[in-house]
Amino acid sequence: MQLIDQHVKGIMEGCKQRARDAGLSFEDESLEYIVTNRDMIELSPKVMIPTLYDYWVHDVRVISGQGMYELYPSNPYETVINTRPPISYYNDNNPDWLNVMIFYHVLGHIDFFQNNLFFKHTWDFDFNGQALADKRLIAKYRSEKGRWVDYVIEFSRAIDNLVGYHDHVAGTLRSEGKRALGKLDYYFDIFLQNEKKVIQSEYLKEIDRYNKIDHNRLEVVGKDATSQENHENGAYAANAHDKNITHDTNHGAAVDLNHIYESNGSLSGTKNGNISKEDLFLIDVRIKYPEFDSFYSRYIEKKEKSRLDVVQYILKNSEFLKKDENRWMKSVIEIIRNTSLVFQPQIRTKIMNEGWASIWHEMLFMQDDRIKGHETDFAKVNAGVTSMPKVGLNPYALGMRLFYHIMEMENRDCYSFEYFNLKDKVKRDKFDKSKKDNPGKKGLEKIFQIRENLNDFTFINSFIDQEFMDKHNLFVSGKRLNRERMSWQYYVKSRKAEDYRDMIINTLYHPPVIYVDHKKTTQGPLYLVHKFEGKPLKRDYIENTMVGIEYLWGRSVRLETSEPVAASAETPHQRFINFWNQPKPPSPSAAQPDNKKEITWKRVLYVMENRKLIKRDI
Amino acid sequence: MITLDELLEKDRKREEDGFKRKIRIGRIVKPVRGGREKIVVVPTTVEEKFVHDEISLEEEGEGESTGGTGDGQEGDVIGEEPIRPSEDGEGQGEGDGEGPGQGSGGDHEFESNAYELGKVLSEDFELPNLVDKGGKRTLVKFNYEMTDKNRGFGQILDKKATLRRIVETNMSLGNIPDPYAIDPSDFIIAPSDMIYRILSKEKSYESQALIFFLRDYSGSMGGKPTQTVVSQHVMLYSWLLYQYHKQVLTRFILHDTEAREVEDFYKYYSYKVAGGTKVVSAYRMVNEIVEKESLARDYNIYVFHGTDGDDWDTDGKEALVELEKMISYAARVGITVARHSYAKSKDTEVESYLKKSGLLEKHANLIRMDVLDEDAEDTRIIQGIKNLIS
Q1: Where are the domains of chain B?
Q2: How many CB pairs under 8 A join A and B?
């Protein structure tokens, strides 16, 4: 493993310039290493982070990786890791022109890492350096505690997919960093409606009363308010939180969302005014409901507690970990949790990230004048990476085509209401409202927005449409047994966009939602609840996972989950429930006779005590 | 870099600490043209977490959906893949597949790895050493052959080789100015140019063990039962390979209602079919092969059969007849029943008729049965091997 030579580095600096001119943005520094296939095999179990802590599972993977390489030698071209500076690896048998192509691809990734909001929590520190410190700490513990360190790592890794990633990243996006509502919102949204259950007219009266105060006070605070206006524009994350009561009468989440997307929308909000307004308003509230403040603080308390993920909850509440001799375990658990958080966005943006990098390596390489003469080589490699397989999925190809598609649609203004209302296929095909002066500009802006704000799920869910399916001749392929011919037949199962969308969404990473029921836990055993989303947990894995949790928690552990009733013997035809979309009423379009049965589910309780697992019905 | 042995050593320590072992011995198989697959033995492990399970959502006989691109209406078939891989190559395989000594590349690689695994199993998992039946045959015979060549002395002068050598020497001495007009009388001949055939000791190996691997590949075997059975058979094979110092021949037989022999392990382990089950078909085939090729005289014969316990011949009338015939010559018959998890406590057909027949008690040293769950762990599988062979 060595740094790339100065000549190639020079070429790469040229690439950076061209990429910047095209609109990508990334930090100046980057590190490039030449590695052998063997290095790659050794790095990949550590997710390519050279400084990641040592762990025997990595060793197992390395040995089996070597065995795999013996039989199926492969030549990965490149890998990038999201560190500060970003590090990318190049295979030692890449020719120079290939490294240029790859570097454009790498720049696409780096741009994605550093601009997609799902990565925001990784922006402020160098994970490579952090990992090195962690590695040393773990090595130190290992020299003191021996293999028990490995057990703690193992047990923490067993629950590292239950980390509260979304809360974590949302926390970095929200300026105040708290999730709970303000007092005023709480009063209107929860206190009046849920706690006091006031009738509608009284509720409206209260709003009215509040608005009146607004008018009376506005003159006094008006000046202040305008000076705040500038501050508000731009920092839309903050806007989303500061709901403006004078402006909207419904307090739904939808309003919040609008604020996020229309960051430039004119908000007549008077942030500063609110504060004093609020105080004034709340004085009367307190007279009427003296218990208001204690309700509010109970609400805040509840909010904070229920947001702890399973790992955090154990860290905070485990009696076992609080013992002096076990305190070191906490640092190990923290390390595993933080490491997991760093990798979460990567798994959730695979299609976008690869698509983004591919679209840019294609566009930038073609424009680069320095590589004339390698067009055919490029075409060959590029086709290998970005072609759609006859049967199967290729995230590079899919993501890239979808980005191109979105650009084209946006340039023609096809995401408009007018296009949406157009039902005529021919008119739709001919629909073109592209701007005369700079036809490509709008589409480009659109995909830059998308790379900043979306992840795989939202990307796939929002943009795979019938036009995309038709353009690339896509379909969902099925595989069935033909008994006469004794063969598997592959067939075109569906050409509908929604089926394709569902099929892809079904392949996306989605760990189960499992949280701690605090009330039931206070009785002693840790009580975990699996929020059922249509899929059961993998039963084989439950026992060992719970052994680990029991160890960290120091006493018995319960898990409440759902399982199909009599799945094995009586109902071989099980019906799959899509957990993103609520079960739809059977549509007439489902032409095949539906001989699939609905599964019935029941809640069960797994109890892990003294490393023995029992299952009970609830 | 940590070695496999060290990893296994660490894994063993887990048991002392009250945790289950985590490392399994896995294998990667690569089919190679000509039927000689390569197998590499590697450790594998699974990091268990709470994850969603894919419940089978499709109708029976329906595989998983994925993406695709290209022409065709909904419902059109765009491709086909036979369930039984093509039988091409089996015909040509027969010529060189017969008899001992297929020592060519692919096989060798598998063997050396499997041998290593056998060593690991014997040493690390404390599998017993083999108790042989009756008089043990010599493994290695020595023949004296005149195949080796020697310069300077020996029994028979190899004239052609000697002349070639002399010409070479003279050319390098510059003693042959014109290659088209050679005068042999001018040759300078050194004693070391004389090449002789010399009598030498040649090892000739004789195969000692012949193992029949029988596997039920009917529909019900899909998934875990197959994995468990194949897992156990790989380890058995590796262990016997080690025990017999690589002098092991193997035959692979698959059966549903009919039996068929396949020529290599890869096919043995990867074929699947969706048919019914008749255990007797496989037993009968073994007996026929042994009789036809009169193998019983020359080999210690082992027969290992893996099944999920289903048999259409529910009381085993036919199967038991063939079994009795089999134990008349076999050193050991080992039957593995990988029970389906839904079959909980009830005996499967194979189990019940075997138990009823009394063969297991009467010939305890010849026939063994091991019943395990379809998702048995490696340690259990290895325990099973002990049951079958000890």
Answers
A1: 141-176+186-204, 207-389
A2: 225
Q: Supply the pLDDT for residue A20.
A: 94
B28, B66, B82 ranked by CB distance to A67: nearest: B28
Asked if A371 and A406 sit in the same domain, the reply is no
The pLDDT of residue B240: 75
Task: Decide: helix, strand or coil at residue B302.
Answer: strand
On whether the CB atoms of residues A221 and A270 are closer than 8 A, the answer is yes
SS3 A113: helix
In chain B, which ranges are continuous DSSP H helix? Answer: 4-16, 90-97, 105-124, 159-173, 224-243, 265-270, 279-292, 317-327, 349-357, 359-362, 378-389
Please give the residue of chain B at the shortest CA–CA distance from A533: B52
> Which of the four pLDDT bands, split at 50, 70 and 90, describes residue A110?
very high
The whole-angstrom distance between A332's CA and the closest CA on chain B is 17
Average pLDDT over residues B189-205: 78
State yes or no: pLDDT of A104 exceeds 90. yes
Best mean pLDDT range from A66-75, A418-427, B250-259 = A418-427
CB atoms B45 and A547 under 8 Å:
no
Tell me whether residues B47 and A477 touch, CB distance under 8 A: no
Please report the pLDDT score of residue A247 as a whole number. 40
Which contacts (CB < 8 Å, 24+ apart) does range A307-311 have?
A307/A164, A307/A167, A307/A179, A308/A164, A308/A516, A309/A162, A309/A163, A309/A164, A309/A167, A309/A515, A310/A159, A310/A162, A310/A514, A310/A515, A310/A516, A310/A528, A310/A549, A311/A156, A311/A159, A311/A160, A311/A162, A311/A163, A311/A336, A311/A337
Chain B positions in Cβ-Cβ contact with residue A391 (cut-off 8 Å): 66-68, 78-79
Of the candidate ranges A573-582, B100-109, B311-320, the one whose mean pLDDT is the lowest: B100-109
Residues A417 and A433 in one domain: yes
**Intra-chain end-to-end CA distance of chain A, in Å:** 56
Inspect the interface and report whether the beta carbons of B80 and A70 lie closer than 8 Å: no
What pLDDT digit, counting tens, does each position of A500-545 carry?
A: 999 999 889 999 999 998 888 887 899 999 999 888 998 889 999 9
The confidence band for A264, taking pLDDT boundaries of 50, 70 and 90, is very low
Mean pLDDT of all residues in B186-204: 81
Name the residue type at position A470. Answer: D
Within-domain flag for A501: yes
The shortest CB-CB distance from A487 to any of B38, B53, B83 is to: B83
Q: How many other C-beta atoms lie within 10 A of the C-beta of residue B345?
A: 5
Contacts of B82 in chain A (CB under 8 A): 485-488
Collect all residues of chain A within an 8 Å Cβ-Cβ radius of residue B50. 159, 161-162, 511-512, 514, 530, 537-538, 541-542, 545, 559
**A397 pLDDT tier (thresholds 50, 70, 90):** very high
Range in A88-102, A129-143, A536-550 with the lowest mean pLDDT = A88-102
ipTM at complex level: 0.75
The residue range of the domain holding A402 is 387-506
A159: nearest CB among B49, B76, B375: B49
What average pLDDT does the segment B316-330 reach?
84
Are A490 and B79 a contacting pair at CB < 8 A? yes
Mean pLDDT of A81-106: 88
DSSP character at residue A391 = B
Chain A residues whose CB is inside 8 A of the B47 CB are: 57, 154, 157-158
Which of B32, B41, B65, B220 best probes binding to A when mutated, by most A CB atoms within 10 angstroms?
B65
Name chain A contacts of B67, Cβ cutoff 8 Å.
388-389, 391-393, 398, 474-477, 500, 503-504
Q: Are residues A528 and A496 in the same domain?
A: no
Q: What superfamily does domain B207-389 belong to in CATH?
A: von Willebrand factor, type A domain (3.40.50.410)
Total domains present in chain A: 4
Smallest Cα distance from A255 to chain B, Å: 33
User: Is the Cβ pair B83, A544 closer than 8 Å?
Assistant: no
Mean pLDDT of chain A: 82
